[in-house]
Specification:
Keywords: Membrane, Transmembrane, Transmembrane helix
Distance between the termini: 49 Å
Strand content: under 5%
Organism: Qipengyuania psychrotolerans
Order of helices and strands: HHH
Helix content: over 70%
Largest sheet: none
Protein name: Pyridoxal phosphate biosynthetic protein
Number of helices: 3
């Protein structure tokens, strides 16, 4: 394996971080088109950018670091709560 490549665990955590971010961007589009959950839909991607940037900086650039993993878990929990809220409303 080359020195510049990511390990399997790093690829997993990078993918696990990307999925909630893409979901938040999709929610942003839906929120603007339907005019619902606008504050949450605008704030969630901003919070993710700040959180991922801060944890990545403090981890020394390591994707497979407990701080980055904590950010990933937090945003997956946020996505799960959002799904539960929507399921309860409809």
């Amino acid at each position: 394996m080359s020195e510049g490549g990511l390990t399997r665990a790093e690829k997993f955590w990078a993918l696990a971080a990307i999925i909630p971010f893409l979901l938040s961007i999709a929610l942003l589009g839906i929120a603007f088109s339907r005019q619902v959950l606008l504050a949450f839909a605008i704030g969630w991607p901003i919070i993710q950018i700040i959180g991922y940037a801060g944890s990545f900086k403090r981890s020394g650039g390591q994707i497979n670091h407990p701080l980055v993993k904590a950010q990933v878990f937090l945003h997956w929990m946020m996505a799960a709560m959002l799904v539960l809220i929507v399921m309860g409303v409809t």
